[in-house]
Amino acid sequence: QVLQLLECIPPLLLLLVACGLDHVLCSMLSIIQQHSFVQYSFRSSHHLSVHVSGTSLMARLLRSTVGALNSSSDNEVQMSNFACLPQPRAMTRQQYLHSCAPLAVLLLLCLLQGYAYRLRRAIAAFSFPKREKSRVLFLYNKLLRQRHHFVRLQRQRLARRARRPRAL
Predict the structure, then answer these.
(1) 8 A C-beta contact, residue 71 and residue 48
(2) Distance between CA atoms of 46 and 86, rounded to whole angstroms?
(3) What ranges do the domains of the chain cover?
(4) According to Swiss-Prot or TrEMBL, what is its membrane topology (predicted)?
(5) From CA 124, how far away is CA 133, in angstroms rounded?
(6) Residues 6+ apart with CB under 8 A from 114
(7) Which of 8, 44, 91, 125 has its CA at a distance of 20 to 30 angstroms from the CA of residue 24?
């Protein structure tokens, strides 16, 4: 059960790194948006007028020809780079919860797996009592063998220590 919980650590770290990276990127893009906004305002105007004085035929001809060149215009242009700037949107608390929910379910399943194994053994013991009795006897005998081996090993260690001369 502990090993399964340890296997949940890499996805947890990945989730923490992803959420932290999301927060850092959102903060950086917000700073870029705030400090990179530029707005241009350009205004220009021109007036072109040609005055021909006189009453002769040539003056009238020039007035009709050059009169078409008389013009005036006022231009005002406002430009900004707002459309080019990043528009960061931070994840909401709900989105963070939705991204953490699968990992929480995984941890919960790891914790409940031991109880599921016990329930499985109880159901099998109810359905097959003879097999359960032989399983319990096998486990009990295995435990007795392990204890016997441990006691023998400790006796050998004590005997080796007793034979070894003491250094002052």
Answers:
(1) yes
(2) 38
(3) 1-38+79-127, 129-168
(4) Multi-pass membrane protein
(5) 11
(6) 1
(7) 8
